[in-house]
Structure prediction request, 649 residues.
Amino acid sequence: MTLAHQFAAYTAWRTLLASDIAEFQTWLTENELSDGQIDLRLGQLLERLAEDRLNVAFVAEFSRGKSELINAIFFADYGDRMLPSSIGRTTMCPTELLFDGNKPPQLELLPIQTRASNTGVGEYKRFPDQWERLPIDVDSPESLQDALRHVSETTRVTPDEASRLGFATDEEDNDLYRPDAEGMVEIPRWRHALINFPHPLLKQGLVILDTPGLNAIGAEPELTLSLLPNAHAVLFILAADTGVTQSDLAIWKEHICTGGTTRRGRLVVLNKIDGQWDELKTEAEINAEIARQVEQSAQILDLPASQVFPVSAQKGLVAKINQDIELLARSRLPMLEAALSDELIPAKRDIVCESTGQEFGDVAKRVRTLLESRQSGLSEQLTELTELRGKNRGVVEYMMGKVRTEKDEFEQGLQRYYAVRSVFSTLTNNLFAHLGLDRLRQVTGETREAMLEASFSKNLSSAMKSFFAQTRRALADSSHEIGEILAMMEMVYKKFTVEHGLKLGSPTTFSLLRYEKEMDRLENWCDSHLGSTVSLLTHDKKNITQKFFEEVAVQVRRAFERANKDAEIWLRAIMAPMETQVREHQIQLKRRLESIKRIHQATDTLEDRIAELETVGTGLQQQIRMLDNMEARVQELLETEQIDELQVA
Prediction:
């Protein structure tokens, strides 16, 4: 099964999962088991599943065959080259292929001049008027190819303008942006390109990132800070005839294998092995030469040879279009696709399973607790009413007084609950005083002043280190407040469980560890790209300061925004069970008291009330069985290992 079919199967699995969760949400509403918090959580979960993306990045120096490899792996069924592939530099700027149903098929181009601002590409995506747009005729491959030729466009500027836009024109080993005879420098015309195209794979959520070579990657740090680290798979492409060049090695070490370790979903492709196909050599000799190149490449990149895949993208594409099974096998493309499937699909599925399982499990647990609480209260009422059969009026009055006493005691206990809410509110305010964006803005402002006033390189480096030290302190202080909230809620859960018989279990835990690790990653990048001795000595202070705030500080802010959102969701989740149980217990006590009052006033209603409660009990049992069934269906999908076996009705 090809990667395209595997991805289609994954999409079918995700669709089934979303369908079951949507059915669960509807059932909760129809049975009055939902509330604003549950509805919000399920709505957000369904939104995440609907917007789920599978990001694959292709990284290489120029002329390594990236575009042809993309065509061969993903778009051979299209029957032609979706991306233009020719000798020379066909991709001058980072290019994303995706599908957004809210936009028409088009090519969006961000002018290179936007680099002069202190704004990253991610921010510009929020402002469509800053992009130039070219329509695409979906029925014409030529229309798409004509539009994509714009990605290769260049413009000529002065050396000063090139430097201002982030292109190094004064480095001795850089011939790419050296002034010509007229003193002008040729640079890419566009900073970033977005291709919105309704190809079946793109419509299912595939996003392909085609990157330019080393110089362009280095000039756009957002690639290495955000787009590449967040890709579910990165294919690093080498040429079989050259192996690992110095520029290839620089890309590998600086932007893919950072820190000397490789992550899941990072594969090396040795492309253009058809150049080794020589009719004067035996197949064994050809295979031996390719194997030697694989071993040498793996050794230089410090990888096991099993992670290097020799292929011919061009022959693989031709073979798929012509349905030539023998040529396809010789291109070795199926082996790369199988490895990519084994890495990409399971890794993405694991992420979805983890987030969906936790969110759906929490909601299902909360609904189950609510139903069990209602069932327990109903059972208690039935026991009380059954014991009143044949009893005199005095016994009924005694029972009524007993329930009234329980209700009064619970009302007194509510004072503690309201006190908890007050303390919870105080601790929540403390948490967001540390984690909130106001604190981060203050730290960012202080750092900017320190960097602008710095007179020596050492001061610049110290300001950047201080920035990360303060962000870590903010996360540490936030973690302390989270611990305080959790400890308090654990104590309150236990008290209300023991004293009033509420079914609360244990409060949901929360950790900021992922954001602490994100600070580590960003600081490591900052140290190696901005804070190194070479950078500090060879780059203008203003340029370093601009890059720090344009790229690094923006990523830190995004991390804090996500942390704030996660913290808000957790705070609602940890208080919601308490609120639900208190409200439900109040309702149950009120119903018990009303039942006994009615029987006290007219003893002939006793049997009618018992029959009424038994009917309600039967309904509760049916709801619990339905919950069991729905939970089992979702769990079965989450535990399904072979997603290619799923059939969509």
About this structure: Residues 395-601 form one domain. Residues 502 and 582 are 8 Å apart (CA to CA). Residues 645-649 have pLDDT under 50 and may be disordered. Residues 541-601 form the longest helix (61 residues).
